[in-house]
Amino acid sequence: IGHSHHMGMNMDMSGGDNSTMPPHHHPTTSSDHSHNHMMMMMPMTFYFGFKNVELLFSNLVINTAGEMAGAFVAVFLLAMFYEGLKIAREGLLRKSQVSIRYNSMPVPGPNGTILMETHKTVGQQMLSFPHLLQTVLHIIQVVISYFLMLIFMTYNGYLCIAVAAGAGTGYFLFSWKKAVVVDITEHCH
Amino acid sequence: MMHFIFSDEVVLLFDFWSVHSPTGMALSVLVILLLAVLYESIKVGKARLLYQALMNLSIPTSQQLIEETDQDSSSSDSLPVSRSPLRWFLCHFGQSLLHVAQVVVGYFMMLAVMSYNTWIFFGVVLGSGVGYYLAYPLLNMT
């Protein structure tokens, strides 16, 4: 069943055109006609444009190049702040470790010797100020990460580049002295 | 409300990437799978570059600390004495580039899943699994 692409008011999106409106695509995945009345006003492919771009909130609409430039800078700084917040939380966590438990277990070492491998477990008290601060910062981090996801979801090329460049610059500047312990199993963060 | 559907038609990420046929869908799932494998490899790559950067700074990693027995290890709180500032800078710059790539690929995968096409979703999940399987053993290779 082939639905042809019906575009609301569309335009020719061959790249390089700076002043087109975001294309309104109907998803062609539904095979049921009745569902197509519920149209998605969100673009589903990347585009470059700065007219009528809604950004996160209903009264935050970008209409001119100047506003887009301002939005680019704001998103760039937000992404940089996010990376900085992550590093700052790591540092705060390390500094505030209170109780430390050592578990030692023997492991075979080179030349048949037995080495003692020591595992350190650290914890925080629940009602201590560092833990509460970490929790508040965690909430802020979650909110900002979802904001960045939603900004990327606008599919606007300029804003997506701002997110990526801000993340890269923030990582570069704030990870200068990074901890030895790296948690690479974290997803998306 | 959107929900997951099985369909051979989808438009993924870019205007020119529109799929209409089972062959096209199979190819797209393969591409998405490779994208997810790339994502996991980037994560491992960043960790390895970090390891290299720390070697250049002569900060002992936890692995080295375990191997040292009676020697005094240098404190990691002291100012890093870089054996090779340029190499360290290149490692850090490389890490930042990989970080940008990781952010972009991660968001692309999120947007692909947002298409709500079940085949694509399987591709992402399978690709993450295959990527993890292939890349993580390379973490501890020195």
Automatic annotation (TrEMBL), chain A:
The chain crosses the membrane at residues 68-85. Its main location: membrane. Keywords: Cell membrane, Copper, Copper transport, Disulfide bond, Endosome, Ion transport, Membrane, Oxidation, Phosphoprotein, Transmembrane, Transmembrane helix, Transport. It catalyses: Cu(+)(out) = Cu(+)(in); Ag(+)(out) = Ag(+)(in). Residues 1-34 are annotated as: Disordered. GO terms for cellular component: apical plasma membrane; basolateral plasma membrane; early endosome membrane; intercalated disc; late endosome membrane; recycling endosome membrane. The keyword Repeat does not apply. It is found in: Apical cell membrane; Basolateral cell membrane; Early endosome membrane; Late endosome membrane. The keyword Transmembrane applies. GO terms for molecular function: copper ion binding; copper ion transmembrane transporter activity; identical protein binding; silver ion transmembrane transporter activity; xenobiotic transmembrane transporter activity. GO terms for biological process: angiogenesis; copper ion import; establishment of localization in cell; intracellular copper ion homeostasis; plasma membrane copper ion transport; protein complex oligomerization; vascular endothelial growth factor receptor-2 signaling pathway. It is a multi-pass membrane protein. Residues 7-22 have a biased composition (Low complexity). It comes from the Eukaryota. Mobilizes copper(1+) out of the endosomal compartment, making copper(1+) available for export out of the cells. Belongs to the copper transporter (Ctr) (TC 1.A.56) family. SLC31A subfamily. This is Copper transport protein. The gene is SLC31A1.
Automatic annotation (TrEMBL), chain B:
Keywords: Copper, Copper transport, Ion transport, Membrane, Transmembrane, Transmembrane helix, Transport. The keyword Transport applies. The keyword Zinc does not apply. It is found in: Late endosome membrane; Membrane. Pfam families: Ctr (PF04145). It is a multi-pass membrane protein. One of its GO terms (molecular function) is copper ion transmembrane transporter activity. It comes from the Eukaryota. The chain crosses the membrane at residues 20-39, 88-113, 119-139. GO terms for cellular component: late endosome membrane. InterPro entries: Cop_transporter. Belongs to the copper transporter (Ctr) (TC 1.A.56) family. SLC31A subfamily. This is Copper transport protein. It comes from Capra hircus. The lineage of its organism: Eukaryota, Metazoa, Chordata, Craniata, Vertebrata.
